[in-house]
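It is worth pausing here to work through a concrete case rather than discussing structure prediction in the abstract. The textbook approach is simple: state the sequence, then state the predicted structure, then interpret. We follow exactly that order.
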Amino acid sequence: MTERRPKRVAILGSTGSIGVNALRVIADMPEHFEVAGLAAHSSVEGLLKQIEAHEPAMAAVFDDKAHKALKGRMNGSRAKVLAPGVEGLCEMAAAK
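Step two, the predicted structure:
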């Protein structure tokens, strides 16, 4: 029997209500899902907490000012901070 690997998931809008609930489901099913990326519009505080909890490979924030704040506060996280705006969201959505 082949061992199944968890599906890698990127949550765009992770700090909103749907994103928060999706992360709860993922946290309850770690054998099925792995958080590969998290993206938010401008909530740096919320995104930082999620990055700490879920350890994604990448993170993005849409707002340019929030992007600068996020980059300055990553404190050794393994997550790669993607470009702000649509560019970073597209890169995350297209990642494998």
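Step three, interpretation. Strands lie at 7-12, 33-40, 58-61, 80-81. The chain has four helices and four strands.
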